[in-house]
Design goal:
The N and C termini lie far apart (73 Å). Helix 2 (39-67) runs antiparallel to helix 3 (81-112), helix 3 (81-112) runs antiparallel to helix 4 (128-157) and helix 5 runs antiparallel to helix 6. The chain is 53% helix and 13% strand. Among the domains are: 27-118; 182-272. A hairpin with a 4-residue loop joins strand 6 (298-302) and strand 7. With 429 residues, it is an alpha+beta fold.
């Protein structure tokens, strides 16, 4: 079928080319220059330009009205997002005014001044006033937009006092969240100790000691095997073992600089970090997010919070924001209700389950084949007590020390969760 479509397209192109040749030959037979245009032809072209102008204005106006500037996003759910939306609206107003003005002038001039017998175009070489007009006005307008944008950007990237610190770690093709624990301080991390049970490469003195013991044991075992059975091992296998031995020795050497920067404080900061696969936030709380990437450049996009930051391998990037609308409140928003009603009607027609609104963290860089799957749910709760109940459950088995096998999982019982609620209620009173 595709091959047939390609053949049809090629034949259409060939036919059009042959028709053009026929037209050229017929013009020569009628002693008509190809550059000569009759008054009827120019009037026809002017009429078609008018039709095209009207079609363009009507269709573009329809799209602006139906889809708007921010289709599907709903209201901003962060404090700075209101300013982002305002700037976005201002930009759209400027663009729409310029669009309608320039397109109207373009078509009016093309229609009004179509070729007529005896009319000659005026040669107009230069006008200082016009040059200043269309240079100064755009420059001042753009300067205002840029300055206003930078002021908002500085707010987003500024590190506010008393903000809760959270790390968001990107890799193909998922996100991992690290909460900074009771001390609100993230522990050190380094790619040299990344493993299955330590995907973020968090570093503590205990981890370094454990790695050193394990790697020394592996080295001793390999050296003994090579020494005692080297002559019996196939060359390919022996080469592989020697390569592994060299790699383990390099890894041991790399532990030394990591050990030098560790202190009891950095160890404590790391051990209580909680590592999870979902992001829980509290409405009205200020958060400072730190971003890292393991492999390629990702871009952490919080569409409903109007925030985005690139995650760059080898460096830490930052932004901050304050959620202002909880997940439950956003689900009651009329715009969101209408949007999800349409979505769920389509899903029901396809035999799929209905879905409800959730905030999302997306990757806004095309980072690989499964880029489209790189998303994570964000839950914004109304109260600190709700967050503390969730957080207490995560501490059962998801602190760094537990995940890395350095501590046994804590037992979080219902009574512990009730204690958290009581503490919160007392604090609130």
């Amino acid at each position: 079928m595709k091959f047939l479509i390609i053949i049809v397209i090629v034949l259409v192109i060939i036919t059009a080319a042959q028709l053009m040749k026929v037209y050229e030959h017929s013009s020569r037979l009628r002693n008509k220059d190809e550059a000569d245009v009759t008054e009827g032809e120019t009037k026809f072209n002017a009429g078609m330009l008018l039709v095209f102008y009207l079609a363009l204005m009507i269709s573009s106006t329809y799209l602006f009205i139906v889809y708007g500037a921010r289709p599907g996003l709903g209201p901003s759910a962060s404090e700075h997002g209101v300013e982002i939306d305002y700037l976005y609206d201002v930009n759209w107003i400027i663009l729409i005014i310029v669009y309608y003005l320039t397109q109207t002038l373009l078509f009016v001039f093309a229609i009004k001044y179509h070729q007529k017998k005896g009319r000659k175009a005026v040669f107009f070489s230069h006008s200082t006033k016009l040059e200043l007009l269309w240079t100064v006005i755009p420059a001042v307008t753009l300067a205002g937009i840029i300055i206003a944008g930078l002021m908002v950007w500085n707010k987003i990237t500024a590190m506010p006092e008393n903000a809760q610190v959270i790390e968001i770690y990107a890799k193909q093709f998922d996100w991992t969240v690290r909460y900074s624990g009771e001390d609100n301080t993230l522990g050190n991390s380094n790619f040299k100790v990344i493993e299955t049970n330590n995907p973020l490469g968090v570093v503590t003195s205990d981890l370094i000691d454990a790695k050193e013991l394990a790697w020394k044991a592996d080295i001793a075992k390999l050296e003994k095997t090579i020494s005692e059975e080297g002559d019996l091992i196939p060359d390919a296998k022996l080469s592989e073992m020697k390569f592994k031995l060299e790699r383990l020795n390099r890894q041991l050497i790399r532990l030394t600089p990591l050990r030098k920067v560790q202190t009891p404080q950095t160890d404590s900061a790391a051990n209580d970090d909680v590592i999870v696969k979902e992001l829980y936030l509290v409405k009205g709380e200020v958060y400072e997010f730190k971003f890292r990437s393991r492999d390629v450049i990702h871009s952490a996009l919080f569409p409903h919070f109007r925030a985005q930051m690139n995650c760059v391998p080898g460096m830490t990037t930052r932004l901050s924001f304050k959620p202002t609308i909880s997940t439950a409140e956003m689900r009651e928003n009329p715009e969101v209700i209408a949007q999800y009603k349409k979505t769920n009607e389509k899903r029901a027609a396809e035999g799929r389950e209905e879905v409800d609104f959730n905030y999302l963290l997306l990757c806004n860089k095309i980072c690989g084949a499964s880029h489209y799957n790189m998303q994570m749910n964000i839950v914004v709760v109304d109260t600190q007590a709700e967050f503390d109940i969730w957080y207490a459950k995560q501490k059962e088995s998801k602190t760094f020390a537990q995940l890395a096998g350095l501590l046994e999982p804590e037992e979080i019982t219902d009574s512990t969760i009730k204690e958290v609620i009581v503490i919160q209620e007392v604090a609130a009173d």
